[in-house]
Write a structure and sequence with these properties.
globular; mainly alpha; 5 helices; 46% helix
Length: 119
């Protein structure tokens, strides 16, 4: 399947959070594949699938090219990576994927399946 999003669309949501010389194109195809495999047949609109693919592409870029952020508080400031968790929670972009996916399937990717068995 052809990618739903373009590099320009992904770059637009990344803004200046990632260096402008980063090529985002290699991150779009894996995002497309993952969205297609995970969400095809779930009854989501083409626009919803495109939105999820766009934010997932940005998530992949941000994971591969993390940027330091500076926060100023009063007279002091500190630097930190804009990462807050694991999986899709690692970046703001991944968190948007979870919000956009009404099925909840994207946030379950990579989590182990637990099977309870009564003896």
């Amino acid at each position: 399947m052809a990618n739903r999003v373009t590099a320009d669309e992904v770059e637009a949501i990344l803004g200046d959070h990632v260096d402008s010389d980063v090529n985002v194109s290699p991150y779009i195809t894996p995002a497309n594949n993952l969205v297609t495999v995970t969400l095809s047949g779930e009854g989501l609109s083409d626009q919803t699938l495109k939105d999820i693919e766009m934010w997932l592409s940005a998530h992949f870029v941000a994971c591969a090219h993390p940027q330091w952020s500076k926060v100023k508080v009063g007279d002091g400031s500190f630097d930190f990576f804009g990462q807050v968790g694991k999986g899709l929670n690692l970046t703001f972009y991944g968190q948007q994927v979870k919000i956009l996916d009404p099925t909840g399937k994207m946030q379950k990717i990579g989590k182990p399946k637990v099977i309870f068995q009564a003896l």
